[in-house]
Amino acid sequence: MRNFKTTRNLIVIVAVLCGTGYFRMPKEQKFMEDLRERKIAHPQIDSEIWSKMGQTSLAGTFGGLRSVMASFMSIGAFDHFENNDWYKLEKDFEVITALDPYNAYYWNTGAWHLGWNAASWARRNQRSEIETALKNGNEDFSPTKQRLLEMEFLEKGDAMYREGLKYNPASEELWFDRGAMWSNEYKRPDLERAAEAFRKLRNSPNPVYRRRYLLTIARIPGREIEAYEEMVRLVSDSDPRHFSTPTFRVLVLILGSNPELPDGALRPPVDVVYNNNLEKAYEELYNYWDRIKNDGFYAGNYKVLMKQLIDRLKVPDSLNPFVTEPKRPLYPSVWKREFEKRDRDSSAR
Amino acid sequence: MSRQASISFFSLRRILIVAQSTVTQLVRMKVFYFLAPIALLFVGIQFLDLIWYQGAETLQPEQELRMHKNICLGTMMVFSSMFGIVATALLIPGDIEDRTLYTILCKPVPRFDYLVGKLLGVMAVIFIAMVVMDVLLVATLHFRTEEKLAEATQVWGKRGLTEVEIAAGRAEIAAHGPTLILQYGVMAHFLKASVIAAVALLISTFSTSTIFTIATSSMIWIIGSFQSVAREALFTDPISGGDPNMAERIMNTFVSLVFPDFKLFESITDGAVRAENVLHSDMTQLGGLAAIYVGIYVVLSWFVFSDKEF
Amino acid sequence: MNDVPAVEVKNLVKDFKGAFRVKNVRAVKDVSLQIAPGEVYGLIGPNGSGKSTTMKAVLGLVAPTSGATSIFGRNSLKVDSRNEVGFLPENPYFYKHLTAAETVRFYGKLCGMRGRKLKERIGELLELVGLQDARDRRLRGFSKGMLQRIGLAQAMVQDPRLLVLDEPTAGVDPTGSRQIRDLILELKNRGITVFLCSHLLEQVQQVCDRVGIIHQGVLVNEGRLDELISVENRTEIILENASENLLDQIRSLVDVTHQAEVVSEGNARTTLEDLFLRETMSDAKRKAVSK
Fold this sequence. Notes:
The structure holds three protein chains of three kinds.
Chain A lengths: L1 H36 L9 H6 L2 H9 L2 H17 L3 H14 L4 H20 L3 H9 L7 H25 L4 H12 L7 H8 L8 H11 L6 H13 L9 H11 L13 H4 L4 H18 L6 H12 L18 H17 L1
Helix pairs in contact in A: 3-4, 4-5, 5-6, 6-8, 6-9, 8-9, 9-10, 10-11, 11-12, 12-13, 13-15, 15-16
Chain B lengths: L11 H16 L2 H15 L16 H37 L2 H6 L5 H49 L3 H12 L5 H27 L3 H16 L1 H9 L10 H13 L4 H11 L6 H27 L4
Chain C lengths: L6 E10 L8 E11 L4 E5 L6 H9 L6 E6 L2 E2 L9 E4 L11 H11 L4 H14 L15 H13 L5 E5 L7 H16 L3 E5 L3 H7 L2 E6 L2 E7 H5 L14 H14 L14 H9 L2 H8 L1
Parallel strand pairs in C: 3-8, 3-9, 6-7, 7-8
Antiparallel strand pairs in C: 1-2, 1-4, 4-5, 9-10
Helix pairs in contact in C: 2-3, 2-4, 3-4
């Protein structure tokens, strides 16, 4: 009788649960879909990530401790960074970002480690080691291999940024840092990719972010007109902080000096841009030449602008780059000293 | 003395009497003395700058506050779920062993009232403990948030950000502080613990050993965390080119129908930690779902317990 | 109302399912008995005879395989029937974290009692069972006898018309046993029906009006105590201060009738319990107990 009762009870329990489950399931599914759409619920973890999880993180997932596990794993992953264990770090961050995908911080940190730190490590990894290894015929440290390794990590970093942006499209830090990685002149700059990232920040409340798109496309040949239009858009922003940066001030002049601009295009005069401080204008234009040469910024009608200022300011020959070999950057103290010398000389004459 | 002609099937008063007795019984149990102080201590010490608040993660104030919330809520979740299982598993077998159950059931106490009273007692203890932990969480989080706000305001001020920008930044940090949405996360944990306790109650009505009850309830707790995986496999189309595996479909169907979905509760908490827009209507839905689960398990418990012999 | 038996068991059969490959056990085989209101009924039998099972069936703790049990006309399986009954199980423990007063209060509340009435009842019962000095002590510190007494108190809290006692004096010292016995007699005087199980036959003999003997699940004998244990053709006369001469005369009378014979003679015996009490209790207490 007891066994019959136990069996009967189990059958009834399972039957009732199945029956109520049949009505409950669609509602739960709808609720979960709604939470996922609003990014309150995490997306499912795919099978590849399951296989990479250790026992602890797996246990945390089942117990409802995903975010906590992600936090602690993130702290632990820092050790891999200190030990230059980049592949272990990558694996850990794949798990961390799977556990807490709506936290842009983890995507950003993982991409930073891979695209910045790992790539730098690959590029300049222990010169003496490389030389010794090459002397010993160890091809693993050849420049080609180093470059390939660097590119591999850059791409891994970029992939992490892009994946992170799928889950966190509103994260300005992710867009910015991705753009910064690809526009960094000390790495392998890819300005098109950088521009693609910075474009998303054109309407950011942060003026620094808003300007980056302009600063990037001003370096891409063939996009000068677009850069000019972007400059005009930012000027009409009326945010005085744009004009507080030297590069922006100079770009306003340079982009406005583009001879291919249509008639009637806005070409802000130097007096207006620099508030009649022509010495400042000259100083910044003088220094801008380095940016043209080293960073690939648009030159525009640089020489014409410079010559106009040289004439207006009666710049001494020592500060005239077309007469004396320029020593850049031009500091205000040097400017002041040379102009005082010019004034003394002209009074003496 | 007046005799009632018949005893009502359900009496809130009787249930509350059993619940009150259960509360005093539980708070004097060793398992409570062990779990509760540890949980309280762990939540309370988040006030200090422990080692996990000194890493790179905490360069961002929002990230540090998230970590604080994650750790505290994680502690509360572990405590409430474990206690819900262990305490409930010990109740009925303990009463049977001591024969206290005989004396109670020989009074005019319907078995349904006894079961509901026991469960309510467990839920009351969990609730009280979580309220205390929540107060600690709010207090420690408030201090940390104020600290982060002050630091950030100073830094932004030096960087020359406008008042509007500073206010926007402060609002972003404050959103990760103690807000109503965070309380939704705490409530979600309590609701989950209530469902787990109801599961343990059901199993204890037909289980012959406490260990079995605890082990089975724990297993259901774990399976419940990925029930949604099984359910979603039923609702989403199969991968193109692949044939649906019949055995997997049967397993997914069984898991989806029989086991509770704890992922919904955990998702609300995760969202609350991330300061996402968890709505009042979400909590209403979740509360309704928890009530349905608890109701089903209680009715099934009564079904088994009603003709159980002692 | 008086025609309704306090307890009625009709053709009770109870089977327990055996473990795998073990036959079912028939614990109670077609037992029928009735207990009239106000009676003290003792169900006696060896261990495993079905006493506790029968008792549990009366209380609704087990469901009959066949047959029926009722309390004052109400089916035992219905919760209604529990209004009228108080139960003291064998070796009860109760909630150790409660005090004596809290324990009685808890059970009183379960029976629907409240307020001043309950408060007074608690005091009354604790005094009745002799635990008023221990009312605020937790049950964790109680001795066996004290637990039995608190058990009696909770059983009586709602002033039931029927008390069911399973081995009420098991493990209790003679003093405690005597107190419980006297309590049962007092309850009987108040008209409360008592149904008790015990295998301490001496004590059953002292309190019960009717006795049922159960063996291997069968009620083998039942009836009024004095009828069951009296040896019909034997008469007992106890004399005090009888001289040897008087005793000789009585012996001669018996010899003369040729119908009876002296089976045995000797000094009348007291009981070991009385001797124990005499040796261990003070005069005042002994007088109180002997009342």
